[in-house]
Amino acid sequence: MTATEKTGGGASASYALELKGVNKSFGLIRANRNINLAVRPGTIHGIIGENGAGKSTLMNIVYGMHTRDDGEILIDGERVDMRSSADAISHGVGMVHQHFMLVPTFTVLENVMLGTEGGALLREGREAARARIVELSERYNLAISPDALVSDLNVGQRQRVEIIKALKGGAKILILDEPTGVLTPQEAEQLFEVLKVLRDRGVAVLLITHKLAEIMEITDAVDIMRQGEIVGHRKTAQTSPAELAELMVGREVLLEVERTEVSPPGDVRFSASHLGYTSSQGVVELDDISFEVRSGEILGVAGVSGNGQTQLMEVLAGMRHLTAGAINILGTEVTPASETNPRIIRDVGVRHIPEDRHTHGLILHFEARENMILGLQDSDLTGTGLLMDQDAIEANCRAKMKDYDVRPSEPRHFAKNFSGGNQQKIVIAREFSAHPVVLLVGQPTRGVDVGAIEFIHKQLLALRDAGCAILLVSVELDEIMSLSDRIMVLCGGKNVGIVSRDEADRQTLGLMMAGQKRTGEAA
Ligand SMILES: Nc1ncnc2c1ncn2[C@@H]1O[C@H](COP(=O)(O)OP(=O)(O)OP(=O)(O)O)[C@@H](O)[C@H]1O
Predict the structure, then answer these.
(1) Which fold, 14-249?
(2) Ligand 1: distance of its center to the CA of 101 in Å?
(3) How far is it, in rounded angstroms, from Cα 78 to Cα 88?
(4) ipTM of the complex
(5) Global pTM?
């Protein structure tokens, strides 16, 4: 294959990036197999695939963070050898990772200069670096000031600082790994506007995402990965979400699960009455929140992220102490005077899928089988003798990995070495199968592929049908709307109102998320 080919209009168009026969294994796991990929300049190119398909590994190879076992990488038709991210940057490749790498107490300028000690930016001095930031910000409509303190920026703005960092060396290829997972829908739209400007200025943008709607909205072409291989390539205009989902997972996928109407929900399993939480810095983060959740119902919590959802989940889970009002969980009353902790809350039958799986859901340097019993060490999962039964712990993990399709099915693999979606499946498997009476669920499908989303949604509805009382926090409005029986909207730490499933449409919820109360609403 030549690096240059004729376009339909007769003009010559080379590929910004080509991969030929790239392979990568981690021990026995073949993460990338014989990958051939070609990306044109001035296009947005999607990479999709089920969890563990090898997307991040492949992009990390292009960015020099992993070394390929064999195969070729060509940039603008030239063979290059990527041995480090410094190599990649020097060849015009930039990458924005899922987890930002910014120092919050530094300004944008200081963050952008960080890591270039001894490099061109420092020699040019602060003023040259400042001018570069202003130039990039203007050229790509990033609207970022070099003197802003990073801690004052919202998540979308912080991501744009990462984009500036990636572009500062003159990147012609920009890789973004699940960039919208942490963004609000509004911030995601702003990011897409930036990506379109980058495309129009000739940058080749590679976008890893699980959200098929994003692929349809923003990309020009898409490659589909499954089990380490590229199993399809499509021009976006010539495909559909259903076809992409099927190519990814190898079977037809229900993009919205069917939900049965259950008889009226049962007894109240947990409730909050005038609940308030003020942080140690004196910031009121939850204010006068009242609601109840019954057996057999899902109460969805909608809101632009950062409006108290995290604090609410953590107060209910016993991770933070409420400072006003009361909670009643399965008859256990929690007030500001109570000595609560997560152990007490778990012991009454509450299970919790935390929003941040890395910080609160897993111990990354523990093995999968150890993570699969976290919080359940005293249960019969660890055997009945005086000492923990290692065979029982391994068998428990193996069984849950099978039920929840965790890949690879290796109980002794460290949690940190699973792909993001498979890490999430470990947390879900542990908590869902621990017979929850009450379930607190935060962002259950963040970073999870469409097949697994279908599975998780079905499981959530099955638990609800079996009588579990579920509180579901998600930034995905579609997820909230398709699963919840009632929806509570939070804005500025306040309960703006609770609407039934039938009353909930995007417009009503959108207005409520902006703080508009519904008339005559009794929360
Ligand atoms: N450092 C590592 N050591 C061992 N195995 C690894 C390592 N990094 C990735 N893997 C394995 O390689 C495979 C591909 O992982 P990768 O993170 O590339 O998948 P992905 O497609 O990005 O998944 P997700 O959508 O869940 O993020 C997985 O089986 C994963 O467990």
Answers:
(1) Rossmann fold (3.40.50)
(2) 20
(3) 13
(4) 0.98
(5) 0.79
